What does this fold into?
Amino acid sequence: MIFDEPIVFADGNSVGRLAVIANPRSPRTVLFRAPGSSCLYRIPDIRNRAYRLVDPLPE
It folds into this structure.
């Protein structure tokens, strides 16, 4: 997932490309991971952000 504008998270990271991760604890909650990072993020009001879906990066 690529966002039109990078998102700044509470830990100070600014990320424009994130991988969508299934949340094993809550199937209704979607988590996101920055490429090359082990940090997981939640994005509030994602429906109000401009983004596009792309094929995942090879691991």
Remarks:
- The CA atoms of residues 27 and 43 lie 15 Å apart.
